[in-house]
Design goal:
CATH topology of the largest domain in chain B: ABC transporter involved in vitamin B12 uptake, BtuC
Number of helices of chain B: 11
Number of strands of chain A: 4
Strand content of chain B: 5-15%
Helix content of chain B: 40-55%
Largest sheet of chain A: 2 strands, antiparallel
Number of strands of chain B: 13
Oligomer: heterodimer
Shape of chain B: elongated
Number of domains of chain B: 2
Strand order of the largest sheet of chain A: 1-4
Shape of chain A: globular
Number of helices of chain A: 14
Strand order of the largest sheet of chain B: 5-4-7-9
Helix content of chain A: 55-70%
Strand content of chain A: under 5%
Radius of gyration of chain A: 20 Å
Structural class of chain B: alpha+beta
CATH architecture of chain A: Orthogonal Bundle
Largest interface: A-B, 52 and 49 residues
CATH class of chain A: Mainly Alpha
């Protein structure tokens, strides 16, 4: 029972932790892409990687100030979105899907390659770039703080505070945009591209704008993750994360402003709870070690997410808050 | 590229059953293998393990299979050195003949000591470009074998199957269990693996995709479902099979034979021959047999095929079985040359997509042609870019194709929307 409570507390922390922010920002970006515009971006993690490494490379390799690093990350994400969009946005949805997933994997391979080591740190990655950011905290970052049964270090708390403010601002922006004429056009593109084109709108340009905007949100996510972990390692940006973000988005409800946020918090809570719970069950011998060792638990989360994603799409594609008619899943 | 293999792979696997992890083995170890592609495993080389202060822990000689291992008194730093005088003529150690390694508690630490057998400097009369071209053809044939199913499935059902790579992996892993754990020779093991692949393909269709089609699930929803399936399967493999890469028990440590402008190991020749024969059979089947014609008909126009009396569901099931079996065989051949890994199929998937897109999504022959080009391109690209980035070349090719000719070489304009 104590184990269960403990698992609950750890999972409760995950509910608000920087990983939830990371996935929330990725999923907000995907919401703009997939939920509102109907673009299948399967390489969201590439934007996050550029965001994270934008800071890491600028600060620890080039010695630039932290905020310039943020700018570099955002710019890199914009360039990537333009490069991805140019060839694929005129084509059918699944081409963008293939190209984005290929790009994300390719970029990771480039970043971790031996020849990129002088810039990206190779497989070991980079660290020690968040000092300027942590120094901005209005409280003592060396101490530990107890909040409603969970313990946080001062710097963790600072990252999380700024992260959630960022999530709130991004959500607000999405909310405002989707009420604007721009948002209506974008949603119309999701429903029927040809109809929008016949009204004289430049569909290609709107799609490109949506791709860039969502990519920037993804880059912010990567920055929060890099600052939260204090290091940027190419292999942290595995493309499975893109699908975790998709799971979060669909769980919360696509094409809803708060869908991705709630979805990420819930997803992280469920994953962390399952993780800690399973580990303690294995430690107590309830689950025999031959069946499942505690090192396998980390992999099990992806299995669960995969199965969950399938079940959600088949039985409740609109997630918790979504509207079935608004989820673009039945097109071609 | 194989010919200038540095060889000497750290072997964290050897006797261990994967998944059980090394927890069963108490104490720390360093281990490795000394071999090159030309000389094969090297026997009788003295390997010395010492502490950083120079205190010798143990001195061993490599065995018949080139392997060596040394038990350590505890975790910490160790210096592993090889006696260069023991190496056969023409084989040299890359860089220093010693390596400093840090061993964590309870871990069998693999130590890589790279060996150079001279083939790097065109010693055996090989021309690097020709060598890479031949390797590329071999690799392209493997991609093609796996990708034919992907393309046919797309053609007949419209599904972009992101879980196709997992059919490749299941083939390789099934053959590994049958071959290494079951002690069955690799050739019957590969045939059994093809059966497994076919059955898994059929189960895919019967349990997931046919019911989903009946429900009227959209293609994009189906695509995301296939991603969920891919994630779930891939990490299930990792749980059961483990994160290591393992070789098959047979046909290891072959010497490369020289064919004038290039060299190849016998197993590579065999896999080229197998792939060509299988692909020709598939082409004949598509062209001549009734089911093959039905497959092409469904692929061309599903409704028209159905109304002319073709049982579409049966054809689709057949496509899945065929695709699964071919993917599994591709996995076995890939495992033979690159070892078996839990995510090998997923990594191949992106190149399969590149090949299929290049040839034209949905066309069987296009997949063949496109995959060959991608395979050759990926290998040849190592002439200009580093080896660990060669897959990136294939992915770049994919993007370039989409800009220039999005319908692919053999695709028709109508398909791209």
């Amino acid at each position: 029972m104590a184990d269960l409570l403990n698992a609950f507390a750890i999972a409760g922390k995950a509910f608000f932790g920087f990983q939830a922010i990371f996935f929330a920002l990725l999923a907000i970006g995907l919401n703009v892409h997939f939920g509102y515009t109907g673009l299948l971006n399967f390489g969201q993690i590439a934007f996050a990687m550029l965001g994270g490494f934008g800071i890491a490379i600028s600060v620890s390799q080039w010695g630039l100030p932290f905020w310039v690093g943020v700018l570099v990350g955002v710019l890199a994400a914009v360039v990537l979105a333009l490069l991805l969009g140019l060839p694929t946005l005129r084509l059918r949805a699944d081409y963008l899907a293939i190209v984005t997933i290929a790009t994300a994997e390719g970029l990771r391979l480039v970043f971790r390659s031996v020849s990129a080591t002088p810039v990206t740190g190779g497989t070991r990655g980079l660290s020690a770039f968040n000092r300027d950011f942590v120094a901005l905290a209005p409280w003592d970052t060396g101490r530990r703080y107890d909040l409603i049964g969970t313990t946080w270090s001062g710097s963790e708390l600072w990252v999380v505070t700024i992260g959630w403010i960022l999530v709130a601002l991004c959500s607000l922006l999405v909310w405002a945009l989707m009420r604007s004429p721009w948002g209506r056009v974008v949603k119309a593109i999701r429903e029927d591209e040809d109809a929008v084109r016949s009204l004289g709108k430049n569909v290609y340009a709107y799609k490109m704008q949506a791709l860039v905007l969502g990519g920037i949100f993804g880059a912010f996510g990567g920055m929060v993750y890099a600052i939260g972990t204090g290091s940027a390692i190419p292999d942290q940006y595995q493309n499975a994360n893109t699908f975790l973000a998709y799971a979060a988005l669909i769980l919360g409800g696509a094409a809803r402003v708060l869908g991705p946020v709630i979805g990420s918090m819930l997803l992280l809570f469920i994953l962390q709870f399952a993780d800690t719970g399973l580990r303690s069950l294995i430690a107590n011998g309830v689950i025999p070690a031959e069946l499942l060792s505690s090192t396998d638990v980390a992999q099990l989360r992806y299995v669960l997410v995969g199965i969950g994603l399938m079940l959600l799409l088949v039985f409740r594609p609109q997630g918790i808050f979504g509207d079935r008619r608004e989820v673009m899943l039945d097109a071609r | 590229m194989l010919v200038l293999l540095l060889a000497a792979f750290g072997m964290a696997f050897a006797t261990l059953a994967p998944g059980v992890a090394s927890a069963a083995e108490a104490g720390e170890q360093v281990r490795g293998t000394l071999q090159t592609s030309l000389s094969g495993p090297i026997e009788g080389v003295t390997v010395e393990v010492a502490t950083p202060d120079g205190e010798i822990v143990d001195t061993v000689q490599t065995g018949e299979d080139g392997r060596w291992e040394v038990d350590l008194p505890g975790p910490g730093q160790y210096v592993v050195s090889v006696d260069p005088d023991d190496l056969p003529e023409g084989v040299e150690v890359n860089g220093e003949p010693s390596r400093t390694v840090t061993v964590d508690a309870g871990r069998a630490q693999p130590v890589n000591i790279g060996l150079n057998d001279g083939s790097r400097n065109d010693g055996g009369g090989t021309v690097r470009a020709v060598q890479l071209f031949v390797d590329g053809l071999r690799f392209g044939l493997l991609i093609a074998m796996a990708a034919v199913g992907l393309s046919l499935i797309y053609g007949t059902t419209g599904l972009t199957n992101f879980a196709h790579g997992e059919l490749v992996t299941i083939g390789a892993i099934a053959a590994w269990y049958i071959n290494v754990q079951g002690g069955v020779p690799l050739i019957p093991a590969a045939l059994l693996a093809m059966v497994v692949g076919g059955v898994v393909g059929a189960l895919n269709e019967l349990i997931i995709w046919r019911p989903l089609r009946r429900r009227g699930t959209g293609l994009i929803a189906a695509l995301v479902v296939s991603i969920g399936l891919s994630l779930a399967l891939r990490y299930t493999y990792q749980i059961f099979y483990g994160g290591f890469s393992n070789p098959y028990a047979d046909y290891q440590g072959q010497r490369a034979r020289s064919y004038g402008l290039f060299t190849l190991q016998d197993r590579d020749i065999a896999s080229i021959v197998i792939a060509v024969v299988v692909l020709v059979l598939v082409a004949l089947m598509l062209q001549r047999t009734k089911i093959g014609k039905a497959m092409r008909a469904v692929s061309d126009n599903r409704d028209l095929a159905a109304s002319s009396g073709i049982d579409v569901n049966r054809v689709v099931l057949f496509v899945w079985v065929l695709g699964g079996a071919l993917a599994a065989l591709g996995g076995v051949l890939l495992g033979l040359s690159d070892q078996v890994q839990w995510d090998m199929g997923f990594r191949l998937l992106l190149l399969m997509f590149a090949g299929v897109t290049l040839g034209g999504l949905g066309t069987a022959y296009g997949a063949l042609l496109g995959s060959l080009i991608v395979g050759v391109f990926v290998q040849m690209s190592t002439l200009v870019i580093p080896n660990d980035m060669k897959y990136v070349g294939g992915l770049l090719l994919l993007i370039v194709i989409l800009v220039i000719r999005p319908q692919g070489i053999l695709g028709s304009r109508a398909r791209i929307g």
